Amino acid sequence: MVEQIREMIARNSRSVSPSTLLEDVRYAVMDLETTGFNHAKGDEIIAVGAVIVKGHEIEGDKTFHQLVYPYREVPENVLKLTGIQREMLVGRLGFFGVLIEFLDFIGNSVIVGHNIGFDLGFINPKLKKYCRTKIKNRTLDTIALANALHIPVKSYSLDNLIAYYGIEAGERHTAIGDAFLTAQLFTRFLAALREQNVRTLSGLNHFLKQRARLGDEKIF
C-alpha cells in the first residue's frame, strides 16, 4: 500500500502549467471533518469530502464522500455538530484505505479549501510518518482569495462569506456539504478574478502575492 500511495502522489504531482487559463483548470475542492483541531495531540479524520470545479462551474456528478474510522473516541460535541453517529463509523475504512480512493479522485487537480492548511495538516503528517511523502498538488485557499479580493466582511469565516454571497448554508459541518459550499464560494471568486482581469494561474499567483504585500489579512 505504501508504494501505491507514493506512486499515486508522484503521478498527481504533475504540475499544471502556470500559463493555463483559470477556466481550464480542474479544481478539487475539499473539506475534512475531524475529532478535534489538533492532529499533533491525537485528533483524527472522520470524513473526507470533495467536489470538482472546472470551467467556473461545479461538476455536481463528480463528488467524493467517505466516512473514516478514526480508531479513537469521537467527542459528543463533534457528533452533534457533524450529525455523524458512532455506529456510522463502525466498519469504515481507516485513513489510508480512504486515501487511495481520494488520491485517485483528485488526480493532479489544483486543491482548493477553506483554510486548506488545516486539512492538509491532518493528511500530510501521516503521509510523512508512514510513507515519507506528502501531497504535492498546487493548492488554493479561499481565505487568501477573500483577502486578496477585499471581500467586505468582518472576518473570512465560511459562514460570513457564504452569507455575503447569499449562498444557502445547506449541509453545514459535513465534509461533503462544506466542500460544496466552498466550491460555490470559489466559483464566485473565479468570477471576481475574471473581472479583475486575472486569467491564468501565473496571473493569480502574482495577484495573490501583490495583494498580500498591500494589506493585513483578517482572521477567519
Word description of this protein:
This protein is of the alpha/beta class. The chain has one domain (2-214): Nucleotidyltransferase, domain 5 (2-Layer Sandwich), CATH 3.30.420.10. Helix content is 45%, strand content 16%. The chain has helices at residues 2-12, 76-82, 86-89, 95-106, 116-131, 142-148, 158-164, 175-195, 201-214, and strands spanning 27-34, 45-54, 57-67, 110-113, 139-141. Strand 4, helix 5 (116-131) and strand 5 form a beta-alpha-beta unit.
Q: What secondary-structure arrangement, pairings included, does this model have?
A:
Elements lengths: L1 H11 L14 E8 L10 E10 L2 E11 L8 H7 L3 H4 L5 H12 L3 E4 L2 H16 L7 E3 H7 L9 H7 L10 H21 L5 H14 L6
Parallel strand pairs: 1-4, 4-5
Antiparallel strand pairs: 1-2, 2-3
Helix pairs in contact: 1-4, 6-9
Please identify which CATH superfamily we are dealing with.
Ribonuclease H-like superfamily/Ribonuclease H
CATH architectural category = 2-Layer Sandwich
- The outline comes out as globular
Write down the Rg.
17 Å
Strand content: 15-25%
**Largest beta sheet: strand ordering:** 3-2-1-4-5
What is the CATH topology?
A: Nucleotidyltransferase, domain 5
Q: What is the CATH level 1 assignment?
A: Alpha Beta
Please trace the helix and strand order, writing H or E for each element. Answer: HEEEHHHEHEHHHH
Q: Give the number of DSSP strands.
A: 5
Overall mean confidence score, pLDDT = 95
What's the number of helices? 9
Which regions are unreliable across 5 or more consecutive residues at pLDDT < 50? none
Give the fraction of residues assigned to helices: 40-55%
Oligomer state equals single chain
What class, by secondary structure content? alpha/beta
User: Sheet with the most strands?
Assistant: 5 strands, mixed
